[in-house]
Amino acid sequence: MNKDVKEAVRNAIVLLIITFVSGLALGGVYHITEEPIAAQKELAVSRSCMAVFPPDMYASEGLSFVLTDIKPSDTLAKGFKENGVTVGNIYGAYSGEGTFEGYAIEVTSSEGYGGDIKIMCGISAEGRLNGVSILEISETAGLGMRAESVLVPQLHGLNSEHITFTKTSKQSPDEIDAISGATVTTTAFVNCVNASLDVFAEISSAEGGAS
Questions:
Q1: What is the pLDDT confidence band of residue 59, given thresholds at 50, 70 and 90?
Q2: Are residues 70 and 166 in the same domain?
């Protein structure tokens, strides 16, 4: 075996050892960080759920949220898709005494002006829209990004099966005022909220039919 071949073999072996050691190191780092990352995700979910279920709205303290396996029916999901909306995780909300308080529903619209708009909607057991929190948004500063200050406050405590928006001045309890100059953002946001209300109505109808 000539010198060049020996050198190539030696380099290949060294590279193999480095790759093997690096793989072990990365695996170790992943194992170490996996649990803290999962804990942070769980905390983020809990906070977003709590944001749409203010504890002062209930006699009992200590709300908890449990991930359900509930999914919208194929019919609903198809209708949502036509509006660029998808429903994500659905969490059941329970008081400290175990009383069912409603659902926290993740909804995403792919039709925001600047990309996806993802929100969490809290709906009480009676069907009231407790509140909405924004999980992801990248709209235009000064326009669509005003969703937090313009749209969210109008939805707190709303008791409606379907909401609409107006560019002038709302005339009914089912209407909210749009963000001035941000119709696309408002439309995407309202579509998300209505999807959560539709899901709740479907769940309630199924439970009523089963009783």
A1: low
A2: yes
Question: Are 80 and 22 within one domain?
Answer: no
Q: How many domains does the chain have?
A: 2
β partners of residue 90: 105
User: Of 104, 132, 130, 129, nearest to 119 (Cα)?
Assistant: 132
Distances (CA, A) of 164 to 42, 118, 135: 33, 19, 22
pTM above 0.85, yes or no: no
What's the pLDDT tens digit per position in 93-131? Answer: 998 888 899 999 999 999 999 999 999 999 999 999 999
What is the domain extent for residue 199? 55-210
- Using CB atoms within 10 Å of the CB of residue 185, give its burial: 0 to 12 exposed, 13 to 18 middle, 19+ buried: buried
Question: Is the pLDDT assigned to residue 211 strictly greater than 50?
Answer: no
* Residue 44, number of CB atoms within 10 A of its CB: 11
Does the pLDDT value for residue 142 go beyond 70? Answer: yes
Pick from 187, 149, 145: which is nearest to 166 by CA? 187
User: Largest Cα–Cα distance of the chain, in whole Å?
Assistant: 90
Ramachandran region of residue 132, left (φ > 0), alpha (ψ -120 to 50) or beta? beta
Residues making up the chain, counted from first to last: 211
